Amino acid sequence: MKAWWQLWLQSLRRMPVLIAIAVALWAATLYFALPWLRGEAGTGTLAAAFFCIASWSWHVAQGFTLRSICMPESFMLPQFRRRLLEYAAIDASFWILLPIIVVYLRGLPHAPLIACGLLLVPVLGVIMGGNPRANTFIWPLFIVLGWAPTYFTRLVQVALQSALTPLLILTLIALLLAFGIAPLLRIEDRQADTSPLESTGLGRNAMRSAPGEPQRTGAIGRRINALYDSTSQRAMHRALIGYRRNANLTHRMVLVRRLLLPHDNPEAIALRVALVASFACFYFLAVMHRPHFEPAVIGAYAIMLSVSRFPQLNLGMTRMRPNMADLYLTLAPETRAEYQKTVSDALLVLVPISMLTALVYTSLGAVLVRATDPWQMLFVAAIVSAAASLAALALHLIGPEGRTGRAIVNVSVLLGVMAVYWGGYWLVGIAGYLIGGAVLALVTLSFGGGVWFAAQREYQQLAPRFDAPIG
């Protein structure tokens, strides 16, 4: 079968939803373009808008596929670069060359500028899908333009009148391709794999990609990872010293936690909070300088951000099975239930960490948006985050290992967190801190604690598994 067909199937398998959206938008483009070709001028703008969104969506999926298949082993395939070039030529013929021909046949004004725009849209899509680091430089540009729409309108008007604008766009396209696509086509040594239970947030996109895909991190990301690794090394060194001085159960549990959760030591938690706080401050100062929402939503978002760590637990524990055999032999438990209890007790530390991060993010958000009643947000967030963390830890500890099952559990947890937070916020506002808080704590903590104890009992009855996950 042709190589270009196989490449298209890769995109369909990896990003079926995005491909379906692009095809639906292309069908809408055709629906509005046919009347425009027959002379109805009113539908041309709609056709152009749908086509640009369709092209961008399609090429985001193509960029994700390109990022997944450009592994060092792939370049050993015969004529791999040539096949990629052929596929790119076929794709450009449909999404770029054909619309440009239609533009010139219709005699539209500013045809060279439109042609450059038709080329810029798919290039942006491919780069944003294939090189997530490029989003760091692309999205701030859109944020600035959205912050000053008047200046953006004037800029567009001046650009339409300048003959150098197409050349400027072509230069920008060349720079984007050199910055975003060229690194994918270079053969580089694969970096050392990180722990599946890392908590930096920098490698989670790589974990969701295809098996064997190299983790590509920029210079800033490598420096941040080095900081996290240095904190984990110091924490492990302190845990070893404490265990050698006094080999009791407490120091033994601390040592197990440092092995399983390398980036959940106090220094790494402080670094993670500082990074999130810096991004949050930039976002609010650059975009949300005038709040357009209810400040109480900050608490809900902070809890969602704190419990977003737990889906990684299910996937990470599955991927760590072969390595857990060494831990089992080192601990030498008398029974399998003792080993399972040790692991579950070690992971329980994620609950107070999740509560702490939720409260810190809520406090930061309350300060940035100048909330009128921050104490109510913090009070409700403390109760709901505790119950939500217990429930999320329990569900992801014994939950389904398949991708679909994990997604369903994750969506259920997030929807439940939102419902409970807003219900609790309303209840505390109506009944007060004492009565409303007592009812909220009784209901939520009873549910979260009951789910956790049931899950822990079920987990202790399971036999330890050390086989590598299939796929």
Automatic annotation (TrEMBL):
Transmembrane segments: 12-34, 87-105, 111-130, 137-157, 163-185, 268-286, 292-311, 346-369, 375-395, 407-427, 433-455
Region (Disordered), start-end ranges: 195-215
Keywords, in A-Z order: Membrane, Transmembrane, Transmembrane helix
Coiled coil: none
Keyword S-adenosyl-L-methionine: no
Name of the protein described by the UniProt record: ABC-2 type transport system permease protein
Native species: Dyella mobilis
Source species taxonomy: Bacteria, Pseudomonadati, Pseudomonadota, Gammaproteobacteria, Lysobacterales
